[in-house]
Inverse folding.
């Protein structure tokens, strides 16, 4: 860790530090799969729903209902897949934001590959066999922590 | 728990169940404070950032930088404050979404009250003394679990 005291200044939140993550760090934290949140615009409002995601072919994918709110809002530009991890006991955490275009995967060969890669069923009930792909156009992340 | 097998059907995700939460359950899960995610539109893209929030006076509040992306995007209608909790080991979790208008709190008396209620400093560094209020217009939530 760098010498965080070098930048120490008095004032609100002065002991709290944060730094930007580069693309490599963001991909590393996303891993190959996990649980994140898909954020998009539906009927003029931002909606945010947890999803189990799969990173494959440089894009983020998740399964959802073929006739639900998500699919009915696609394709859509400028949506987000957000993933974070929090450690409340030490007031630390990180957050990664994948921003880009989301669309339903239609190609049969690609669907077969995705179903083969996906380990877990979606946690929610009902038929959720539509695959959504988010192609990253911007990738950003930040780590925050309480400097001692 | 209700007899989940009554609705059992074969097919993808058939053992996974979910149900909607009512407003009382949503407020109960939000509690008086916690860590959630603020989702809004900035330059045509959905942005999602973790925030420590405070529920007060029927609205959700959080602190942020007075000259950052969030404040520069306000006031804004149809934004979201999302909170969830996950139990990956049992593929269960819940998610609550507060949807409404977000604006910077300007009233001095209200600011004094909010600073008095806020327990934790923001985890990120820098001056973050602008209070944002999200007035709930819609409140929704869902619980998901793996039926045995």
């Amino acid at each position: 860790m760098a010498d965080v005291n070098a930048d120490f200044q008095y004032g609100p939140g002065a002991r709290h530090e944060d730094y930007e993550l580069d693309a490599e760090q963001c991909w590393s934290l996303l891993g190959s799969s996990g649980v994140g949140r898909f954020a998009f615009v539906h009927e003029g409002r931002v909606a945010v729903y947890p999803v189990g995601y799969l990173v494959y072919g440089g894009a983020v994918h998740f399964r959802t209902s073929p006739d639900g709110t998500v699919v009915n809002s696609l394709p859509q530009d400028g949506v987000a897949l957000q993933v974070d991890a929090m450690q409340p006991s030490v007031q630390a955490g990180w957050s990664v934001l994948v921003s880009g275009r989301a669309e339903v995967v239609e190609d049969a060969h690609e669907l077969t590959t995705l179903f083969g890669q996906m380990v877990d069923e979606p946690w929610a009930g009902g038929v959720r066999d539509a695959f959504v792909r988010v192609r990253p156009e911007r990738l950003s992340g930040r780590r925050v922590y309480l400097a001692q």
User: Anything to note?
Assistant: The helical segments of chain B are 23-30, 69-72, 108-117.
